[in-house]
Backbone:
């Protein structure tokens, strides 16, 4: 556990150092811009490592839950744990996130700590990290597009659609299948299964928010299309009258 603690401290220090360097070299963009760059880097790094773990190194999380942690799984979890502690502290200090996101970070931190302390179920934790972070670059791209004034464009539409589709597929469909495999398997401990249920419920909380966003956006697009159609009809009628 001592080596794990040192690893977490080193990773936390690394993320803080990266953020500090970005603020010093890119200070004109503001704190949130630089924090989101760190978030984007962590998302890409976490997806790459956990994808290799799941698809190359193994074992397959759907068939072998509750197995002993491998060195690469431990590395991936330590890196992400350091990041989540950094981001949690940043969000609390700057008060940029609501209670749902803070709960997500808290559960992520506790889940990784639990998996590291038990020395098992690292495969499931890495799969959760993969499913959670694979939509992260799209979420950050959406924010950056807004800041640059390019969100209301075809690129912004594509980012939103891809984010929603990927979230539903990875967090709800694939996540639900993995939770089912976790619950029916005799290997994972009961507390790990409870953590899995809690994370899946939280995914549905996010899903409700995303559904509301998609509904509002579709209604707004429909009203805009309807107004444009009516305006075009009025102009056509006026033209014929003249």
Residues:
């Amino acid at each position: 556990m001592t080596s794990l603690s040192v690893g977490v401290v080193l990773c936390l220090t690394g993320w803080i150092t990266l953020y500090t360097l970005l603020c010093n070299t890119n200070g004109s963009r503001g704190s949130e811009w630089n924090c989101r760059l760190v978030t984007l880097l962590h998302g890409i790094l976490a997806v790459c490592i956990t994808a290799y773990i799941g698809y190359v190194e193994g074992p397959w999380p759907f068939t072998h839950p509750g197995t002993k942690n491998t060195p690469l799984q431990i590395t991936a979890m330590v890196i992400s744990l350091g990041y989540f502690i950094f981001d949690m502290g940043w969000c609390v200090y700057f008060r940029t996130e609501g209670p749902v996101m803070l709960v997500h970070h808290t559960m992520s931190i506790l889940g990784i700590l639990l998996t590291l302390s038990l020395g098992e179920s690292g495969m499931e934790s890495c799969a959760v990290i993969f499913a959670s972070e694979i939509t992260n670059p799209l979420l950050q791209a959406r924010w950056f597009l807004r800041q640059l004034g390019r969100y209301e464009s075809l690129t912004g539409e594509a980012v939103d659609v891809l984010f929603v589709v990927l979230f539903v597929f990875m967090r709800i469909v694939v996540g639900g299948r993995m939770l089912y495999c976790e619950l029916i398997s005799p290997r994972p401990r009961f507390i790990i299964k409870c953590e899995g249920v809690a994370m899946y419920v939280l995914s549905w909380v996010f899903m409700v928010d995303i559904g509301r966003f998609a509904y509002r956006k579709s209604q707004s697009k429909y009203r805009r299309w309807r107004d444009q159609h009516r305006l075009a009809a009025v102009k056509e009628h006026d033209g014929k009258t003249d």
Notes: The helical segments are 2-25, 31-57, 71-94, 99-118, 122-133, 136-147, 154-184, 190-241. The two ends are 85 Å apart (CA to CA). Residues 190-241 form the longest helix (52 residues). The mean pLDDT is 91.
